Amino acid sequence: MSGIGHSTEPHGMQLVAVVIVLALANFLAILDTTIANVLVSHIAGSLATSPSNGTWVITGYAVAEAIMVPLTGWLAERFGPVKVFTICIIGFGAFSLLCGMATSLNMLIAFRVLLGMCGGPLIPLSQTLLLKTVPQRHMGAALTAWSMGSVLAPVAGPVIGGIIGDNVYWGWAFYFKVPLALGIAFLAWRILMPHETQGVKSKVDYVGLALLVTWVGALQVLLGNGQDKDWFNSQFITILGIIAAVGFVCFVIWEWTDQRPIVDLRIFRNRAFAVSLMVIGIAFGAMFGSIVLVPMWLQANMSYTATWAGYNSALSGVTMVAFAPITTFLMSRFDTRGVIFVGLLLTAASNFLRVSYTDQITFWQLMWPQLVFGAGMVMTMVSLIDMSTSTLADKDIANGSGQFNFVRTLASAISTAVVVAMWNDQIKSSKDQLVGAMQNTSAAIQAAQNAGMDGDHARAVVDLVAQGQSAMQATNNIFLALGLITLVAAAFVWIAPRPPKSTGAHIGH
C-alpha cells in the first residue's frame, strides 16, 4: 500500500486508539439506523405530528445511508480516505446536534437525511482504514472489534433510545453522540493522516449517481413503509417496487459499461469477492433476522422491557470476544472458507436451538443460543471480511469495502421488513388454525365463567392464550427458516477459490 511502510505502522497505545476510533465510528453510524425506532411516538408528540409521519425520521436516515455506502469507494479515491472519514465524522457530530435541536418534523427529517449522508461512508471507510493501517499480526482482533459494532449497534439502538425516551428529552438520543464524534474526528486526524493516500481527480458519473439514488431510494422507502401500507396491495408500494427494479437493472448495465463508473461493478469478476458478497447477503440477512426477532418477541409476548431484551441480545458479545483469538488462529492455520463454514453452522445451530422455545422459557435458558450465535457471528463476519478483500488490488479495497457493506446494509433492511411481515402473518394464520382446532373453546369459556368471570373476560382470557401460543409457534417457525437459510449460505462458501491463509496477508501488497 502506497504510503504505508513498517515505520508508519501503529503500535502500542496508538494501535489501540486506531482500532477504538474506527470501531466506534462504525458503531455510531449503525446505531443511528435503529436508535430512533422507539422514539417515534415521543418525537411525534413533541413536534405535534402523527406517528405515521414520524416514521420518515427513520426512513430518511436509512435512504441517505444506503445511497452513500456504495459511493464510498469513489469518494475515497477522489479525496483520500482519511480526509473523507474525518469530514464525515465531523458532519455526523454536527448534524446529530442539529437533529436534537430540531423544532419541526420537516427540519428533523432534513437533518436526519444529512446525518445519513455523513454516517453512510463511515461504515466502509472505517473497515478500509482498518485493513490499511493495522499490522497483519493484529488484524484478527482488530476486525473482531470492528465487526462487533455491526452486530451490537442494531440491538443497542432501541435499548438506548428506549431508556432516553422514557427518562429524558428525546433529543438526547442525538446529543450524546456529539462529543464522541468530535473526539473521533480529532484522534482520526492525528493518528490516521500518516496513512492518507493521494486523491485522484476524475469525471463524475452523474448518470450512475442518479440511477443509484433512484433505485436505492425507492427500495428503502418501500421497505420502510411496506408493512404499514399492506405491501403490494398498495399502489404506492407497487410503483416503488417497479421503480426500484427498473432502476437497478439500468444502474447495473450503465455502471458495468461506463469507463469511469461511480460504483465499479467490474470487481465482481473477482470470484472470491463475488462469492463473499453473495454469502454475506444471504447469511447476514438471516443473522439480522434473528437479531430483530428475538427482542421483538421478548417484548411483545414475554413481557420483557427493552432494556432486558437488550441484555439478552448483548450476551452474544461475550462469545464474540472469547472467540476472537480462536478465529484469528484458525484463519492463520486453515482454509478461511472452512472457518466461515463452521461459523455459519454455529449460527444456524443457534436458530435451531431456538425452535424449541416455549412461553415458559427463562432468561438463563435464552442465554445459550445467544452465546452460540456470538461465536458463529464473529467467525463468519471476520473471515468473510478478510476473504472479500483477500485478492483485491490495493486500489480496489475502498470500493470493495463499500460494496460489501452496502450488501450487508441492504440485507439487514430487507431482512427486517421480511421477518416482521412474516411474523405478523404467521401469528394470524397460526391463531386461525389454533382456534379452529380448539374443540372445547366454549367449554373453556364456560369453565372461566364458572370460576367467577363474566362472558367478556372469559373470552378475552381464551383469546389471550390463543394469541400467546400463536406468537410462540410463529416465532419458532421463523427461527427454523432462518436456520435453513444460513445452511444455504454455508453451502455457497465453497464456490469461492481458496483464499490466502493468513489474515490480512494481502494488506500492503
Total strand segments: 0
CATH superfamily of the largest domain: MFS general substrate transporter like domains
Which structural class is indicated by helix and strand composition?
A: mainly alpha
Name given to the CATH architecture of the largest domain: Up-down Bundle
Radius of gyration: 24 Å
Report the sheet with the most strands, covering strand number, pairing sense and barrel closure. none
Roughly what is the average pLDDT, rounded to an integer?
A: 81
Instruction: Please provide the ordered H/E string of secondary-structure elements.
Output: HHHHHHHHHHHHHHHHHHH
Q: Can you tell me the number of structural domains?
A: 2
- Quote the CATH topology of the largest domain: Growth Hormone, Chain: A
Portion in beta strands: under 5%
Helix content: over 70%
The low-confidence parts are 1-7, 503-509
Distance between the termini: 6 Å
Q: Tell me the name of the CATH class of the largest domain.
A: Mainly Alpha
For this structure, the quaternary state is single chain
- Count the DSSP helices: 19
Q: Specify the overall morphology.
A: globular
Tell me about this structure.
With 509 residues, this protein is mainly alpha-helical. It has two domains: 1-198, MFS general substrate transporter like domains (Growth Hormone, Chain: A, Up-down Bundle); 281-509, MFS general substrate transporter like domains (Growth Hormone, Chain: A), CATH 1.20.1250.20. It has 19 helices and no strands. The protein has helices at 13-31, 40-46, 51-54, 56-79, 81-101, 105-133, 139-167, 172-175, 177-192, 206-225, 235-257, 271-301, 306-314, 316-333, 336-354, 363-389, 397-437, 441-450, 455-492. The chain is globular and about 80 Å long. The relative contact order is 0.13.
